[in-house]
Write a structure and sequence with these properties.
- The chain is mainly alpha-helical and 116 residues long.
- The chain has five helices and no strands.
- The chain has helices at residues 2-15, 18-46, 58-77, 83-90, 93-110.
- The mean pLDDT is 86.
């Protein structure tokens, strides 16, 4: 995700208006923050022993969405970002997902890993 956001911001710096570049930066940053927050929350849930309750509550999941929405709304209202570019930055996981899928296909088909 970091590589896809960095590449998109670098290309847009030279080819797009400044609002598009800041939208990609903000959306990519929020996407990375959201991913990190989700990963640590899920890791905390699965690292809990069976007798104790997880410390992660529903409010932390909801708070994550409110933080992302509040930052995005504030940046758009201040006319600092392009809305479409911000959504493109928030979708930074999509190119990362395709790269990971192609990597798995390569190892499964070419190197015949995971075969029976």
């Amino acid at each position: 995700m970091i590589v896809s956001v960095s590449l998109a911001v670098t290309v847009s710096t030279f080819l797009a208006p400044w609002r598009v570049t800041t939208g990609l930066m903000l959306g990519g940053g929020l996407s990375l923050l959201n991913y990190h927050w989700l990963r640590t929350s899920v890791a905390a849930i699965f690292n809990v022993s069976g007798t104790t309750r997880p410390r992660v509550r529903l409010s932390s999941y909801i708070l994550r969405y409110f933080v992302v929405a509040a930052v995005a709304f504030a940046a758009y209202q201040l006319r600092l970002v392009s809305l479409g570019a911000m959504f493109a930055g928030l979708s930074a996981f999509v190119p990362a997902l395709f790269v990971e899928a192609f990597r798995h296909f390569y190892f499964a088909i070419i190197r015949r890993e995971e075969s029976f």
